[in-house]
Amino acid sequence: MTKKTIVTAAVAASALTVLFLCTTPLRAEHQHPAPETQVSPGVNPLVEEMRRLDAAFKEIVSGVALGDGVRVHRAIEGMHGAREKTEEALHAGEIKPPKNSGALEKFEKMDREFHGNLEKLAGAASKNDRQGMLRLTKKLMDGCVGCHAAYRK
Fold first, then answer.
1. How many helices (H) and strands (E) does the chain have?
2. Cα–Cα dist 118/100, whole Å
3. pTM to 2 decimal places
4. Burial annotation 7-16 (CB, 10 A radius, 16+ → b, else e)
5. Distance between CA atoms of 83 and 69, rounded to whole angstroms?
6. Which residues of 116-136 are buried (b: 16+ CB within 10 A; e: fewer)?
7. Percent residues over pLDDT 90 in the chain
8. pLDDT in tens, 28-77
9. Quick check: helix, strand or coil at residue 117?
């Protein structure tokens, strides 16, 4: 092979690689497992909700980073029902936060605000409002950190 042939082949291979990378859908990359949609029987509903939030947040962050409102919205949908189970157990006295369990009114207020922001995020996701999704995701993360600082050992 001549030097010109090798260079031409290398350029062609590079062009095909770039073409492949540019046409491969990014949204399919780095998919995280979908969060469970049912609360497991016998599991502390608060712990179960935290597990589902953890799984959902992985998808939310990926979706926000990629500007994929559908992915964000799908992750939020996986949370439906978890909050209600936690509230029921909380009011029945079946669960208590490990720290500051005497301050349940503040805990419930923080939880309502968090879930309100989660609904706002769903709204931003349905409009594929990337800046809104980013702002609300940061706000939700602040809510997670604040609640854990106040109620988790």
1. 6, 0
2. 24
3. 0.72
4. eeeeeeeeee
5. 22
6. ebbebbbebbeeebbebbbbb
7. 62
8. 444 544 444 454 567 899 999 999 999 999 999 999 999 999 999 999 99
9. helix
